[in-house]
Amino acid sequence: MAGTGTAWRPPRACDDYWSEYKHCKSLLHRFHCYYTLGEPPSCQQWKADYYTCRDWEKHQTTEAKEALRGSERQRVAQQQKHASVWELRKKPPADWHLPLDYRNPKDSRAATGGAGLGGLRESDEQFFFFFFFLYI
């Protein structure tokens, strides 16, 4: 493969694979994945891709090239299989131009039967929102 003159490069730099692996193993990322997906992430593919990329840089074997191509194709397919979370609108709501009534948010009260955040008092709701936005 080295003698054919083709200048194929991996889709990412090898250090990018290692950075993705370290990010995947970080506590914050593991917590985020466990919270959103219900399971910790599997980071071994990033590590395997890093070593495969290093192997490609040293020996430029066909096996390393195909392994990196397959891994990237699988990663792209994995990203595209997730459905959109939000339903896209065709047009804006009919009352979009009206001013909002911040003192009486009808939507949040109606959804919980008038109890706000699951039965919390008004002062508890304000503290919750302050605490929530403090850490965002």
Structural description of this entry:
There is one protein chain. With 136 residues, the protein is an all-alpha fold. The protein has a domain at 9-80. Helix content is 57%, strand content 0%. The chain contains 6 helices and no strands. The protein has helices at 14-25, 27-37, 44-59, 62-80, 106-111, 122-134. α1 (14-25) packs antiparallel against α3 (44-59) and α3 runs antiparallel to α4 (62-80). The radius of gyration is 24 Å and the shape is elongated. It is found in: Synaptic cleft. It comes from Huso huso (Beluga). This is Synaptic plasticity regulator PANTS. Belongs to the UPF0545 family.
Relevant terms:
mainly alpha, 57% helix, elongated, Pants/Emi1-like, Synaptic plasticity regulator PANTS
Structural class: mainly alpha
Shape: elongated
Query: What do the pLDDT scores average to?
Result: 79
Relative helix content? 55-70%
Q: What does the radius of gyration come to?
A: 24 Å
Spatial gap, N to C terminus: 50 Å
Main beta-sheet annotation = none
